[in-house]
Amino acid sequence: MKDMDHELPEGVTRVKLWDPALRLFHWALVICVVTTWVLGRYGPNIMTLHFYLGYAVIGLLAFRLVWGLFGPAPARFSHFLFGPRTTLSYMSKVGRREPSYWPGHNPMGALAAFGLLGLLGFQVLTGLFADPEDFINVGPLANQVSTDTARMALGWHYRGSLVLLALVVLHVGAILFYKTWKREDLVRPMITGWKAVRQNPDQR
Ligand code: HEM
Ligand code: HEM
After folding, report:
1. What is the rounded CA–CA span in Å between residue 99 and residue 178?
2. Cβ density class 89-119: b for 16+ within 10 Å, e for less
3. Ligand found nearest the CA of 118
4. Domains of the chain: which residue ranges?
5. What CATH superfamily classification does 2-198 receive?
6. Ligand nearest to the CA of 184
7. Cα of 201 to ligand 1 centre, how many Å?
8. What count of Cα atoms within 13 Å lies in the side-chain half-sphere of residue 202?
9. Angle at 32 between CA 112 and CA 71, to 5 degrees
10. Model confidence over 121-137: pLDDT tens digits?
11. Is 64's C-beta closer than 6 angstroms to any atom of ligand 1?
């Protein structure tokens, strides 16, 4: 890795940014969420697998919560919690045709990360309480709430799945934009951990 550093601009170095657990978390999340979504919409009538994969997503989110509070610095929520000024300043320059070299999630990536994690939390919560009244796919906590609430949870679970789809398309679209327009590959760092970063980015 080091022998490639001479190609990098002044002040930019290649560092091990993403730890193995976070990378494993991300790709496991992708697999579980995609299959849960597809099984929910297009799977067999009996959605046992949808439920099991949904529980796997709950486990992954629980891990991410712990990692966001106590994990390595770049994985911590506090590391990618930006105020409106930093975010707007970053957004105003995002069209520049150059890599951001951001040492972690940049302010826009941070919005996607919090948005996706929050929405997934909402999705599993509504799923747990959802009751389609078909006597087969009842959410395991639906009997703890009124019939109306369980029906409402199902409605929100459905709407949530559409918002999730839109957010994932936006997320992947943004990564493609970085790759093609800004010439910055964000995917490889999420696989290998190594990323070229500028330690004090001027909000590029
Ligand atoms: C269901 C699909 C997906 C979900 C739910 C998802 C979710 C997430 C989340 C929550 C993060 C923040 C990571 C963290 O700190 O926890 C993230 C980051 C990231 N995701 Fe995804 N992702 C999905 C699909 C993909 C795909 C298909 C790709 C590859 C093209 C991808 C590439 C990345 C990259 C490169 C980052 C890091 C971006 C950065 O450098 O800030 N994701 N994703
Ligand atoms: C990432 C997490 C999840 C996603 C993306 C997801 C997505 C979906 C989708 C797309 C549907 C079909 C909606 C429709 O077309 O009407 C669905 C239905 C459903 N999901 Fe989930 N879901 C998730 C987690 C869960 C969990 C954890 C549970 C409960 C353990 C759950 C329980 C249900 C129930 C009860 C239905 C209705 C089934 C029916 O209509 O017969 N889901 N989900």
Report:
1. 7
2. ebeeebeeeebbbbbbbbbbbbbbbeebbeb
3. 1
4. 2-198
5. Transmembrane di-heme cytochromes, Chain C (1.20.950.20)
6. 1
7. 22
8. 1
9. 55
10. 999 999 999 999 988 99
11. yes
Are residues 126 and 156 in contact, defined by beta-carbon separation less than 8 angstroms? yes
Q: Ligand 1, residues 16, 17, 26: which to mutate, most atoms within 8 A of Cβ?
A: 26
Beta carbons of 179 and 187 less than 8 angstroms apart: yes
- Point out the ligand nearest to the CA of residue 18: 1
- The pair phi, psi for residue 8, each rounded to 5°, is -85, 150
The stretch 189-195 carries a mean pLDDT of 98
Q: Is 200's pLDDT higher than 90?
A: no
Structure tokens at 74: 């770049």
> What pTM value is reported for the model?
0.94
Query: Looking at this protein, which amino acid is placed at residue 45?
Result: N
Q: Could you identify the atom of ligand 1 that is nearest to the CA of residue 117? A: 10
With a cut of 60, say whether residue 202 has pLDDT above it. Answer: no
Q: Which residue is closest in CA terms to ligand 2's atom 37?
A: 132
What is the number of the ligand 2 atom nearest to the C-alpha of 57? 1
pLDDT in tens, 67-96: 999 999 999 999 999 999 999 999 999 999
- Please give the single-letter amino acid code of residue 51: F
C-alpha separations of 128 from 45, 139, 145 in Å = 17, 5, 11
